[in-house]
Amino acid sequence: MSDIFRNKTLPSKPSTPQYFTAQPVSSSEVELTWKPPSHPHGKLVKYVIKGFHLKDDQAILDQRSYCKNITFRGDRESYNSSPSIISKLQSYADQKCEKQCEQQKNTDIDMCNDFEHGIDFDLIPIQSRKLMFETCSNFLNTFINSKCMAMQHSDETYFQNNMNENCTEMWSVSNVLHNITEIDGSMSHLFYQLNENETSKTLTRLKHFSRYVLSILVCREVVEQELLNSSKHVDSCSQETLILVRTSKNKEADVIDSDRIRVYVNNHTVNISWEVPTLINSLIHSFKLDYKRVDVVNYVSVCITMKEYESAGRSYVIKNMVPGKYHYKLQAVSLAGEGPFTSLKVFEVTNMDSLENLHLVLMILVCGCILIILMGVIIRTYFSRKLLQRNNIYSLANNPGYIGILVEDEWELNREDVVIQKIIGRGTFGTVHEGILMSQNIPCAVKSVSKTNFLRYHAEFLNEAAIMKKFSEAYHIVKLLGVVTKSHPPLLVMELMGRGDLKSVLVKCKETDNPPPPNMLTIIRMAAQVADGMAFLEYNRFIHRDLAARNCMVANDMTVKIGDFGMSRQIYNGDYYRKGNKGEMPIRWMAPESLGEGIFTSQSDVWSYGVVIWEIVTLGAQPYSGKTNNEVMAYVLDGHLLNLPRFCPDVLAAIVKLCWSWMASQRPKFLKIVKTLDIYLDDNFRSVSFYHNHLANDEAPAD
């Protein structure tokens, strides 16, 4: 009889934990439960739980119109992937994908059909659905990669895109062996090791209404014989089981701040602007606006997608409104569903037709009186002007902006020290000559007021000199060299900008190629030079009110500087529009609040700066070409904007979009604009700019 030999085989890896489920407990907690594996294949020692935050993608959501098909992901509190589907996916991933795809074609189709039920197809564009499951790689990538689950770049390190090597690697949820928190304190990546006798775990510090990909595996004890057998890798842990869960929504989120809602009414058009809630359940995809006239029972309900809201400058325009008082309220709609309505607000649309008829009647009644008074004023003014010119008497208005300008100071020059040469510019105010400042032996530009316009423009001329004295420190503002006020006519002596105004230079580039059209870096440098000059004015609390390409001057080396404080408006007379008794206004460069309410601030200068960038990239084109000034006013107040050309640099396009925000408070400061463009600028700019040498760390003037 032969001997009996007894031998004990090595244990294999345990089967996966059973009944792995995830249930949201609150907006920041998820409870995980599971059962031990059916085949432990040894003594169990620990469970390992890993996971990461899977962010929703706004770009994908924008491809779907939530206003046409109103269903929300928030209708369901959790999104657990079917364990049977996960099991199929893991089993399939163990194979070499490229080699097995053709053989498993029928299996793929069945698996894709099953997997379809675990995905919210409303979030996937129709044109993308056909391609999602055409290949083996697409099938697996769709479950984890960006098309279906909006994977961010930071998460892609945990899933491998190369399906030709080891397909199982992509199912490893995370290689991070510790917890990682986000800026708001919530967990972005999770890692836990639990005792073998535990069958549940509550995950805390999660982000509200957010998706998390979670996995669990179980490990058994490694026996001594396995360690002695160095030829084989010891696989003591089971495969991972994956699950997808979303935390509950935060009931205090998706609240629009009623105090930050603004309404602008222009005739029968109403523009309503508001801010996105600061606390959001994942993503906002649309807004709901309800409004009604107070004497009407039912509300008119309008759905506004996030894409429409952003493209309209974070606002919504209602046209053809019937006169009357209106109630309205706003509501944000996120992936979790509808948020609370704002408090009831009120706006009023006046009956402009009735007012216009009343004005017409009043004008007819007093027309005769006005005509008589007007004729008397004209006659008196004519004879008074003749008398003043004959007696050589000059009068200055009592304006604080230039009072005391005739007092001699360090800026006063001797007339003999200024040699006037050829005319380089002419306007209704007078002339600009090229000249030489003999005391410094440098070329200069000399402004003077003509005798025929002396009374009208003398005060404004001296006011410009007083203003320019304050800004002699800024490199990107045309430098004042001195004034001549001892005799008439007075002279304003400035540095010579050899190429003239920016608009003329841009038009010449387009028409003659001399100088050649600016390249992208030159365009950005021009924009930065204008912004740096305006930053100096903004810091010193000075409002330009007339920023345009025609009022920016260009030196021989193509340096652009801010110039013509109150004088250049006569050079391009067609760019101005006289509205009532408010004087000539540059309508095409003005912000909505300036057009509608006559308000001028540094923020309205920022709007004008956006138009200057538009002029630069279009090589001196006229804004709103083909429209009259009245049409431009209505066009802007209705919320419309200029269209930037496709070749506009992306960084400038982004700045222009902010400059043309409907709400003035949302427009950037000039210092912020220079900071944004800093990476495109050279050391020559940094050595002379106001931003880099005087106020690099400040964002706004001190109070």
From TrEMBL:
<keyword id="KW-0418">Kinase</keyword>
<feature type="compositionally biased region" description="Polar residues">
    <location>
        <begin position="9"/>
        <end position="21"/>
    </location>
</feature>
<dbReference type="GO" id="GO:0005899">
    <property type="term" value="C:insulin receptor complex"/>
</dbReference>
<feature type="transmembrane region" description="Helical">
    <location>
        <begin position="360"/>
        <end position="383"/>
    </location>
</feature>
<dbReference type="InterPro" id="IPR003961">
    <property type="entry name" value="FN3_dom"/>
</dbReference>
<dbReference type="InterPro" id="IPR020635">
    <property type="entry name" value="Tyr_kinase_cat_dom"/>
</dbReference>
<dbReference type="InterPro" id="IPR050122">
    <property type="entry name" value="RTK"/>
</dbReference>
<dbReference type="GO" id="GO:0043410">
    <property type="term" value="P:positive regulation of MAPK cascade"/>
</dbReference>
<keyword id="KW-0732">Signal</keyword>
<keyword id="KW-0808">Transferase</keyword>
<dbReference type="InterPro" id="IPR008266">
    <property type="entry name" value="Tyr_kinase_AS"/>
</dbReference>
<feature type="binding site">
    <location>
        <position position="447"/>
    </location>
    <ligand>
        <name>ATP</name>
    </ligand>
</feature>
<dbReference type="GO" id="GO:0043560">
    <property type="term" value="F:insulin receptor substrate binding"/>
</dbReference>
<dbReference type="GO" id="GO:0030424">
    <property type="term" value="C:axon"/>
</dbReference>
<keyword id="KW-0472">Membrane</keyword>
<dbReference type="Pfam" id="PF07714">
    <property type="entry name" value="PK_Tyr_Ser-Thr"/>
</dbReference>
<dbReference type="GO" id="GO:0042593">
    <property type="term" value="P:glucose homeostasis"/>
</dbReference>
<dbReference type="InterPro" id="IPR001245">
    <property type="entry name" value="Ser-Thr/Tyr_kinase_cat_dom"/>
</dbReference>
<feature type="domain" description="Protein kinase">
    <location>
        <begin position="418"/>
        <end position="681"/>
    </location>
</feature>
<keyword id="KW-0067">ATP-binding</keyword>
<dbReference type="InterPro" id="IPR000719">
    <property type="entry name" value="Prot_kinase_dom"/>
</dbReference>
<dbReference type="InterPro" id="IPR036116">
    <property type="entry name" value="FN3_sf"/>
</dbReference>
<keyword id="KW-0812">Transmembrane</keyword>
<keyword id="KW-0547">Nucleotide-binding</keyword>
<dbReference type="InterPro" id="IPR017441">
    <property type="entry name" value="Protein_kinase_ATP_BS"/>
</dbReference>
<dbReference type="InterPro" id="IPR013783">
    <property type="entry name" value="Ig-like_fold"/>
</dbReference>
<feature type="domain" description="Fibronectin type-III">
    <location>
        <begin position="256"/>
        <end position="353"/>
    </location>
</feature>
<feature type="region of interest" description="Disordered">
    <location>
        <begin position="1"/>
        <end position="21"/>
    </location>
</feature>
<keyword id="KW-0675">Receptor</keyword>
<dbReference type="InterPro" id="IPR011009">
    <property type="entry name" value="Kinase-like_dom_sf"/>
</dbReference>
<keyword id="KW-0325">Glycoprotein</keyword>
<keyword id="KW-1133">Transmembrane helix</keyword>
<dbReference type="GO" id="GO:0005524">
    <property type="term" value="F:ATP binding"/>
</dbReference>
<protein>
    <recommendedName>
        <fullName>receptor protein-tyrosine kinase</fullName>
        <ecNumber>2.7.10.1</ecNumber>
    </recommendedName>
</protein>
<dbReference type="GO" id="GO:0051897">
    <property type="term" value="P:positive regulation of phosphatidylinositol 3-kinase/protein kinase B signal transduction"/>
</dbReference>
<keyword id="KW-0677">Repeat</keyword>
<dbReference type="GO" id="GO:0005009">
    <property type="term" value="F:insulin receptor activity"/>
</dbReference>
<keyword id="KW-0829">Tyrosine-protein kinase</keyword>
